[in-house]
Amino acid sequence: MTIGPASLVHARYPHNGVKHPLVPDSSDDYANWWEHVLPNGRIGAAVWLYEGSDKMRRTIIVREWDNPDSVVHVQGNVRLGAQCSHVTNRFLDILAALPRP
């Protein structure tokens, strides 16, 4: 069994099965915010965006879902694969360290 890069995020912060379109009313199944359960009761949301036509580069964006005051964590020029997961987990670690809502 091969473990994909998103599995590294899921292993630390399980995806709860909920996703939200990046653009309202979008039918693109790949352009979604993916919710991840944090141990402090908060919900982190992550999206990996393509950088132009380079299929090997992403911009990673992570924020707390349903919190308009959430800090938005962004890192561009991330190589697809485990590097995307490490950046995502680093950002989710920051949200997980916040006090319970």
From TrEMBL:
Domain of life: Bacteria
Protein name per its UniProtKB record: Uncharacterized protein
Source organism per UniProt: Luteitalea pratensis
Source lineage: Bacteria, Pseudomonadati, Acidobacteriota, Vicinamibacteria, Vicinamibacterales
